[in-house]
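Annex B. Sample input.
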Amino acid sequence: MMSTQITPRRSFRFTIRAILIAVAFCAIGLAWFADRAKLQREHVAELEKSKATHNYEITVAGTPGIQLEMTLVTKPATIKREIVTVPYSVKFEAVRAAVWFETLPDGKSGGTGSSYTISFKKDGVRGAQCQGANGDKCQCGLHDL
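Annex B, continued. Sample output.
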């Protein structure tokens, strides 16, 4: 009797050619993803550079001594809150800006008959203006957001 030997068969057999083709496809896929990420980073950097800054000027004129609460918001993101006294003027640079004024409660903003005018300029061009008088509960918002 002759016995035949059965050799165990390998379940996975790959040729060098098949391995090289698989590696090539993986390399192409990874290169595509890396290139997309690079393009996105470049695009974000371009957008950041293209954001032009503007010169803003806020002027509060009127009866001297009036006090108003000012909230100034600019982009890039900053928030500034303070009590300002007429006459008041501030110049700054920002991509965009908004400002709100409110009279102080209980007549702390000034005497009877007091009045004020707030001007908001962007790049030297008057953008908005509002007026108020003491005794009025006045809120004034000027923006370029």
